[in-house]
Amino acid sequence: MRTVIILLRGINVSGKNKLPMTELKTLLEELGYHDVKTYIQSGNIVLKTDETLKDVANKIHIKIKEKYSYDVPVLAKEVKEIEEILQNNPYRHVPEKQRYLTFLFHETQINEVEVDAKEDEFTILKDVVYVNAVGGYGKTKLTNNFFERKLKVSATTRNFKTSNKLIELANS
Predict the structure, then answer these.
(1) What is the Cα gyration radius of the chain?
(2) In 10 A of CB 89, how many CB atoms?
(3) What is the pLDDT of residues 50-84, one digit of tens each?
(4) How would you classify residue 86: left for phi > 0, otherwise alpha for psi between -120 and 50, otherwise beta?
(5) SS3 of residue 158 by DSSP
(6) CB–CB of 128/91 below 8 Å?
(7) Structural domains for the chain
(8) Could you give the CA distance from residue 57 to residue 4 in angstroms, rounded to a whole number?
(9) Distance between CA atoms of 140 and 137, rounded to whole angstroms?
(10) pLDDT in tens, 118-154
């Protein structure tokens, strides 16, 4: 069995798609996943499975849709993938609170997007967008929705602290 990190898009955001993590944990255990751990309320999960990443994502997506009627995109990643993404961050030199990762559900061939983001900056590498939000994520134009529109791919964003915590949970 291997450990997998699951990222849900749009759970418990602005009062929409409410899904308590205790219920989500139970749902995932009912699907046969082991050592299920959740982190904060925005759909961050670590679990153990023998299934492929695609199968895990599909099963979770279908089960949430059946039980809650939410059409929630589900991204499954190997722990090593997230570790490499964190290590490759071109903004390691900036304060942690400015660093965000927009995980793309599919690799993109687009590596540049026109935007006047003031002093904020971003780098697109395959299936992740590294964001340096100097004034904080709440003030940047470099949002999850912005990248979904420009890159034509579903995405979900996590801050640096949450991404590191998921690695910590996966390795505990």
Answers:
(1) 16
(2) 20
(3) 999 999 999 999 999 999 998 999 999 999 999 99
(4) alpha
(5) strand
(6) no
(7) 2-78 (3.30.70.1280), 80-170 (no CATH)
(8) 10
(9) 5
(10) 899 999 998 999 999 998 898 999 999 999 999 999 9
